[in-house]
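G., before I forget:
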Amino acid sequence: MVAVPSPRTWASGETPTDALLNENIRDSYRTLMRMPVAIVYRSSAQTSSNAFILLTWTTTIFDSDGMKAAGTVNRLTAVTAGVYEVVLHVDWKLINDSNGGVRWAGIMKNNSDGTTPHTSGEIGFDSNIVGSNDAVGPQTNHVVAQTFLSQGDYVQGIACSSIATDTFDGQANRTFFQARWLGTT
Amino acid sequence: MAIPSLRTWTRGELATAAMLNANIRDVPNWLLRPPIFQSSRLNNQSISNASWSVVLLEGSFINTDGMTLSSGVVTVVTRGIYDCRCQAFFQSHGTGVRGVSIDRLDVDGNFVENPVRSGELSSTSPPNENTNVLTGTALSCGKLISLNPGEKLRMMVYQNSGGALNLLGDGTHMFSWFAMRWVAEN
């Protein structure tokens, strides 16, 4: 957990010792330059066939605060409380179909692995009609949410394609999930 | 809290407690708790056909800078570059397009510009969704916007299904929302 700095109020007449300077200047700035950030992706495809799936993440690009805890393949969990920006991006496998269907994706908070969209845990959602398409143009969902997370709160990603297809198109890290600490309240 | 204005220290001057507080303590305090605002349209809002409508946001869920909200208009307290985002949730309907945008207004509430918007064809409801909500289209937009004290933002939506259509809410959750946060001085 990041110890969110609480810089001292200096009093008249006190001596700014090395310990005070280190604690209140050095440590504050060090912390600010390394606030919680986590970026994860999955190294292989998951398939949706007109049903929402819970996205799972196998690979961590960066995780400064241990949000991708061991054993929790589908969650980013707040270790440090605060306001977070959460981003889910799904880069669907391209299909060349005259009726490409619709792609949906959502970000869920404290939703106990549930995959039903538009329930109480949902904090962000995107729908995207693919329509007539080819095998080159990207088919994606991009969802951004801002939310307050207490320590232990977690976020998850869900996704669905109305036509059976994969969440992976050629480069695994183009489907990703990330969370970034923005500030305290 | 005001944006810290850092002094240039000069040789021989005494670093007083007041100086240390203003130039050292207040900087991380500011960066740790910058202006952040978030609101939502919690309940259904009927949107007229083929015209842009103001989203009547209800309440502030996060508000670290005392920004005010009135009739869907958010007034800025602190100058800066803000990362502004919104998401709109429309009732299921198979006809037409849906749009969402952010308007910038001056300190008197007059329209200045529409710096960002997005739109797409209406889509069908996703499978297995919460039948109390039944959304058809969810879309969003966002941009960095430079703002000064008193200037205002509002979230707008558009639909042309052929009749009035609801922006969806269930009274509790944040399906359609607007959020902004300070990212830098302007």
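The longest strand of chain A covers residues 82-91. The radius of gyration of chain A is 20 Å.

More on Monday.
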